[in-house]
Amino acid sequence: MGLECHIYMGAKDVKRQRPNVFNMELLGAHVHAVKKGNQGLKDAVDEALGAWSEQIDTTHYVLGSAVGPYPYPDLVRDLQSVIGKELKEQIKDYFGGLPDILVACIGGGSNAMGFFSAFLEDWGCALYGVEGGGRGTNLGEHATRMRAGKKMAIAHGFQSIFIQDDQGNLAKTHSISAGLDYVGIGPQIAYLESIGRLYCLSARDEEALHALQFFAKHEGIIAALESSHALAGVLELSKNFKNKKIIAHVSGRGDKDIFITAKHAHPQRWLEFLEHEALELRVKIKFLMLRGFE
């Protein structure tokens, strides 16, 4: 169609999501590493909105989560709703009815809203969202919007719950998962939680890593770090809900996270691999430079 695609990513996320960046560039996208602020998702959204506003006559803003100004949350939810609709149809024969619990990770809320939407009127099916609990409880150490005071704000074109400091400024966040490392939560998720339709949990970085390894070993599922938070939620819920039918949404593959997970699972072997690759690359570059001087 002759359209250019410009992707804005926080510089921190460009590093830790290098396989995704490689794939996007291979497909022809221009990936811009945003080096402002915390160099994360919030800062990438800031830059994307800024670029859009400067070129609004020739640019269309594409949002990948259920956040932002109307109608973006509705568009994303409805396009993702095929997940929940297909699940509801498929489980009729398998379960002979509805599941007891659905679990999804929650960053902005795109996969969760698509997963939950077909079940919103089925109050016998409990809905659980799992946020990024990060590495601690202090500001800047987590991304738990719904468990950090529930402070309302308006940012990025929508009103919802945002993590804020004492002065009302948007705070820094942290999650081992790039997709959950966002300062705000989708307005539809916030509403569902406010009326008691959705319960929010959190999983710390180490719990998500444990869930990733547990399900890889026992089920052959190598989930993305985002989805691993949902799986961590399943492990926690299963302690208190015996003999319940629980379904988790595995929204992504774990191969994109190899530069994060490998150094945790096998640090020494991963370091040796990187050193070997770096050495080979240096030798190749030196050889090419010598040939260039011939």
Describe the structure.
The structure is a single chain. This protein has 3 domains: 6-54, no CATH class; 72-253, Rossmann fold (3-Layer(aba) Sandwich); 259-291. It is built from 11 helices and 8 strands. It has helices at 11-16, 18-26, 41-54, 72-80, 82-95, 110-116, 187-194, 205-219, 225-240, 258-265, 267-292, and strands spanning 6-10, 30-34, 101-105, 126-134, 151-155, 158-162, 198-204, 246-248.
Question: Outline of this structure?
Answer:
This protein has 294 residues and is an alpha/beta fold. The protein is 45% helix and 15% strand.
Key descriptive features of the protein:
single chain, 294 residues, alpha/beta, Rossmann fold, four-stranded parallel sheet, two-stranded parallel sheet, 11 helices, globular
CATH architecture of the largest domain: 3-Layer(aba) Sandwich
Query: What order do the SSEs take from the amino end to the carboxyl end, as H and E?
Result: EHHEHHHEHEEEHEHHEHH
Spans of at least 5 consecutive residues whose pLDDT stays below 50 are none
> What count of helical segments does DSSP give?
11
The first-to-last residue Cα distance is 44 Å
Total separate domains: 3
Instruction: Give the overall pLDDT as a whole number.
Output: 94
Task: Tell me the major beta sheet.
Answer: 4 strands, parallel
Radius of gyration over alpha carbons? 21 Å
Class by alpha and beta content: alpha/beta
CATH class placement of the largest domain? Alpha Beta
Strand order of the largest sheet: 7-4-3-8
Overall strand count: 8
Percent of residues in helices comes to 40-55%
- Beta-strand portion reads 5-15%
Shape: globular
Give me the CATH fold name of the largest domain. Rossmann fold
